[in-house]
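Troubleshooting: if your tokenizer reports a length mismatch, compare your output against this known-good record of 69 residues.
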Amino acid sequence: MYISDNLLKEGVMSATEKVKAKVEQLAGTVKKETGRAVGNDQTASEGVGDKVKGNLREAKEKVKDAFRD
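Known-good structure output:
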């Protein structure tokens, strides 16, 4: 079966973006919990923001996948 270069690149890019989203979500959770543990509200808030960014990135990839099919 022949797979065009563009399709292959899209699949790799999509997978890369999905991994970035998961890493961002995890980093945000760790940052949030670390901030809470040490009593640093600013760090905890930044962690929440990072996790939201990861969630948005993941949602964007899901929308792109829905339109790709």
